[in-house]
Design a protein that fits this description.
86 residues
Length: 86
C-alpha cells in the first residue's frame, strides 16, 4: 500500500510540474518557471523515496532525498525573492 502512495506523490508532482511549465510557456511569467523547476526536482525526490523504501530497503538514501528537497526549495525561494523584485 505504501508504494502506491509514493508513486502517486511522484505522479502528482509530475502533473504539477507539467502544468506549471505549460503556464510558463503560455504567459512567460518566470515565477511559473521556478515553480516548474521545483516540482520537477520533487518528482526526482519522490521517485528516490520509492527506490529507497520499496526497491532497496536495505540502503539509506535519506541524505540524497533531503539534498534534492533542499535544492528544490532553494530554487523556489530564489524565484520567489528575485522575481518579485523585478
Amino acid at each position: 500500500m505504501a508504494f502506491t502512495v509514493y508513486l502517486l506523490c511522484a505522479f502528482a508532482s509530475l502533473v504539477c510540474a507539467v502544468l506549471l511549465l505549460r503556464g510558463y510557456r503560455a504567459t512567460g511569467m518566470r515565477l511559473l518557471f521556478w515553480g516548474a523547476l521545483c516540482f520537477s526536482i520533487f518528482v526526482a525526490t519522490n521517485s528516490l523515496l520509492f527506490v529507497d523504501l520499496v526497491v532497496f530497503p536495505q540502503l539509506d538514501l535519506a541524505p540524497y532525498r533531503h539534498g534534492f528537497t533542499l535544492v528544490a526549495l532553494s530554487l523556489l525561494l530564489y524565484g520567489l525573492i528575485f522575481e518579485t523584485q523585478s
